[in-house]
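1st attempt posting a full record on here, be nice pls
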Amino acid sequence: MLIPPFDSGSVRLFTRNGYDISRRHQQIISELNRLSAGRFALDGELVVLDEDGRSNFAKLARGRTGTHLYAFDLLMLGDADLRTKPLEKRKVTLVRLLNGSCNAVRYCDHIIGRGKDFFDSVRELGLEGMVAKRRLSEYVGTLNGDWLKVKCLCVHDFVIGGWIEGAEKRMNALLLREFIDGELRYVGQVGSPLDSHVMRAVAKMLTPRTASPFADAVENADFKFCRARPPRSGRVHGLHG
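the predicted structure (as tokens):
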């Protein structure tokens, strides 16, 4: 979630794919507009918390209620480009900018060292995983050797409801649905763990359709919908239609 600096006097909120979602999150926009800095750019993640205070991606995908922005990096402040500064220094400046004055916008704190102990706690709490970062790393905007996602692996079956189409009509990610309260609902997407061979195999099982197969509204111009039929050989790397 990148919030670039603008000179229009109001903060704007963008997804990493460039979609402006400012109107959907007015409480977040309102709090950021009240910050003392006139011009800034930060990176963060939208999160919906469940009753136990854990992030719930399915709730985030289905609606907007109770959304928080967890800010974890500061790219620019005033006219100063901070991306080449060490991560620790950027976060010190970020926490000063937020100054504990927000509710919907929250500072994403960190633990120094003890990575294995921290990961064990994340897994015990049933969370998705953690991100490990080098303390002196620069901001480059992509995952590399300095920033790593460490996931807690678990297995669950979903129904494929469509895909996201990239360059040369390649399948970049699959749209997943699940029976919730008797209806097939959108619960997110998966793409990065799947190589091109798996994507081609899955594509042969899908029949395109115009209308969305999801019971809830899914608004995204990049989404292509489908009817999924079961593969002849059972499963493909744990995914089935």
